[in-house]
Protein 1
Amino acid sequence: MRANAHGEYEKDFYAWTSHNAELLRKGRFSEVDIKNVAEEIESMGKRDKRELIRRLAVLLAHLLKWRFQPDRAGNSWKYTIKEQRRMVEKLLRESPSLKHEIASKIDEAYEDAVIIAASQTGLREIDFPEECPFSLNQCLDEQFFPEPFV
């Protein structure tokens, strides 16, 4: 099977994953498509990191909207903030090593958040602070909602 492993990976990913999982369960390690299995495992970790950044960006965007357009803040924004906080916390529980990544990724998420907030508010990107005005603790604190910008 090893000679055909890459072809199966390219043609039918689901069949490839099932087959390689079965080989691993049976201890038939010499037949496993090691190169592609390693790539897929690494890709899963990167996917979780991207998901964390995406969730954090949506959370930050809504905190910015809350701060810069308080007259438009309502239940929809409140529940989006609550949901994103829960999902970030869930990702951190499922992959605790991401806690070490999140502090360094908040700037990256903030850049995305400014674009999201600008597109949803009609404000310009330059109307928002250059650096994230919220600490990571504030972002994840379910009691925190920003004071209006004056």
Protein 2
Amino acid sequence: MNAPIEIPTSSRLRFRLMDEGDADLLFELDQDPDVMRFMTGGKPTPRDEIENYFVPRMLDFTDPVAGTGIWAAIEKDSDEFLGWILVREYGFGNDYLEPDNLELGWRFKRHCWGKGIATEAAGAVLEALKQRTDIRRFCAIADRENVASTRVMEKLGMQFGKATVHVTPKGNFNVDYYDMPVG
């Protein structure tokens, strides 16, 4: 049996996979309208949606050995939960699943914005996942107007691939798809 993937501590952050016990942290993060601007138009996520939709969906793609799930990014000095990095097979929940293409996503508290924290966290996760031999690509998607997320993708080394429609149980979203080969 393989050991779970661990994300090494970065200069400012430590990481752990989130689970059902983290509903309070997920709820708190989603209450800031600015954080939710590109996800829900700024509407905070109701508590029952975190517990009955978000957490079960997260658990469906969480696999410690594969390194998939949602990784909490915690500030080393203060022990504060700053946000998270999502890792799952691209197309999760859809008919176009790409098991060898890992999608990265992120959501961080507003006070972290513009400080390189999302890039640091996503970069640490991406580097740790390169040890998987069954992955050929990493990708990320973002609303075209979400310039900050696009900058993170570019800083990670991803390049624009296409404008596409991202299909989710919550609706369809026009996004830009960025990706990069492993290696």
Protein 3
Amino acid sequence: MKFAFIAPGSGSHPSNAAIVRALAEYFPELQLDAICVSDLIRSRKLLLLANAFWVFIEYGRDIVTRRRKLRDCFYRTTYLFRRTKTLVSERLSEGEYLFSFQHRSLFDGSKDGLPNYVYTDHTHLANLSYPAFDRRDLFSSRWIELEANIYRNARLNFTRSSNVSRSIVEDYGCSPNRVVCVYAGTNVGAHFEIDEAKYCSKNVLFVGIDWERKGGPELVEAFRRVLEVHPDARLTIVGCSPKVDVPNCDVVGKVSLQSLNDYYEKASVFCLPTRLEPFGVVFLEAFAHALPVVATDIGAIPDFVWDGQTGYLVGTGDIEHLAEVLIRLLQNPEHCRTLGEKGRSLVLERYTWEKVGAEIAKNIRNTLGNSSTRAGS
């Protein structure tokens, strides 16, 4: 007997590794069968050619008008969705499995007669809750209906955040009893030595690749107002290289994970006023370094940025409120330290891959009970 771990791509992403370790620990009698969906697809040249045709049938106008990029549409055709389900089902028919587990909701990895479990960070319709999202960017209604089958066919749907749990129930009609929020882990740990002098440095840190979507321009405008009260404040931008015309600003660009830790260690406040965010692991990284976080009140963020306890929430595009919060934090280093320590405690308590994996495995064991469900039996 085996269990199948089905993921979009191969590789040793920390979340994949942690979940696999937990499942192996809770089900020592089962062998792991790792299934890479992209490998299944790429091994079939005719399928790739046929899907290229369907990309232009379903999204051709948006691609021509540059509303969508070709690579973003390739895995969002109804044709590829159905063919992927068939390929995975055929693969699962080749052995005896107790259950299957799929990471992310880009495909339906379920097979009739075999319990399937899903772990996802987002749903497509959850985008509608973001003020910055344009409804015209939704994928086709036919694809969304196929996406709904992922959640309906799953024995349990595990999510990274409460807003995604609500979306699966409210937007896709899935029973609340089949949705469990288990959160997510941070990839940097939370056991760093904290130099409390950093809270006095008045250094505001931004970490993000997509400058516009992450609210970078709004942060710059807010920082101009911060400088009126704190002329010695600094803004450090890591992950991207925008052209910024504001004093006391260091634009670093892309760095390694180890180098990134150095910037967290020197910051006083972490600020990311993002407009659209499926989850935001950088917030957890900032908490791991005991930084207070200032962020927008969207998506998963209110799950961990507790207003006045671990940081502060502001409305999307509310530059005035953003500036007020930053000014208040920079003039109170002790408050920054208190918020940051509370955030780090939350990460240690809830946001570790070990705890996430254990919670997933426990719920799977509970739903399977003493069942000996086998594919094809």
